């Protein structure tokens, strides 16, 4: 039986690139987003191209009820989870002192609480896999604040803290935990920016880096992956 990867926010950008990479390596997928049509298309494409199964669940995991629905869907499949990728996220540009009311809550809910509640919700099945690995998609903003990053930076600093705490807690169980910190990645988030694609990281590069970290022997773990554009941050 194939190994299983759970990916949140898998319908576009980095999440979709990760789904494609894992599928190409023969990993069955359990994925979620808020758009049924997107999920159905991904399922059809990946199952047609690879000898895998793709299980899809529509859920808004910025809400605790949505995380529970996705967790229940995963647990009902009753399969060990070899890889969990907490990728769901959102970016609302603005400065702390004048960003719209609710910007902090929205980004904490999506960028932090979704990872916290999903990990807790499925950890029993993660523990069933012999060499399980959890990836938390953080950001360069987890290390350094940037102008206009406002509450996004707060949420991503917190996600890195969650990842570090989880790593320490699961260390005795030999469950690996990796924080992934990409810089500006060429996704829909950067639509309309007057810069060439070559100025950005490719989402495929992020996915390949995650696969490389996962492929290490059981005796080694990459705790943090920091990826920046060759020409520096944008």
UniProtKB/TrEMBL annotation:
Keywords in alphabetical order: Oxidoreductase
Keyword match Disulfide bond: no
Superkingdom in the source lineage: Bacteria
InterPro entries hit by this protein: NAD(P)-bd_dom_sf, Sc_DH/Rdtase_CS, SDR_fam
SUPFAM superfamilies associated with the record: NAD(P)-binding Rossmann-fold domains
GO molecular function, one term: oxidoreductase activity
Keyword Oxidoreductase annotated: yes
Similarity section: Belongs to the short-chain dehydrogenases/reductases (SDR) family.
Matches recorded under PANTHER family: ALCOHOL DEHYDROGENASE
Identification of the protein by name: Short-chain dehydrogenase
Biological source species: Arcticibacterium luteifluviistationis
